[in-house]
Specification:
With 115 residues, the chain is mostly helical. The chain has helices at residues 13-24, 27-60, 65-72, 76-83, 91-100. It starts with 12 loop residues before the first helix and ends in a 15-residue tail after the last helix.
């Protein structure tokens, strides 16, 4: 082995199966997985609703995807995918989309600690 290069052992299929089984048998891990999945689903719903509102505003303002793309620096294709729920937008992308339509997005995060 060359100096400075470290070898990394990737888990085998057997290791992966064993780890998956251990995870299935761990109630705490199952609960955490369910909480993460629920939070991810809620986030997707929020983003989908926001994108739907932005699309409606764009259409009401009679702004084409091509014009919006020029204003945001995105491509018309990527904006079309976004509006059809096929994109994975960053908050920055959504802010640029909104700014191009003359509005603003405020992102508010809330952290709850369970006792």
């Amino acid at each position: 082995m060359k100096r400075g290069i470290k070898s990394i052992r990737l888990p085998s299929a057997t290791d992966a199966d064993r780890i998956e089984q251990e995870c299935r048998n761990d109630p705490d891990l199952q609960r955490q997985t369910q909480e993460i999945t629920a939070a991810a689903a809620a986030t997707c719903r929020v983003f989908s609703g926001l994108v739907a509102e932005l699309k409606e505003l764009r259409e009401q303002s009679r702004v084409s995807l091509r014009d919006l793309a020029e204003k945001t620096g995105a491509t018309p294709g990527s904006l079309s995918l976004l509006e059809r729920g096929r994109g994975n937008p960053t908050v920055d992308t959504l802010r640029r989309y909104a700014a191009a339509l003359g509005c603003e997005i405020e992102v508010v995060a809330k952290v709850s600690v369970k006792s």
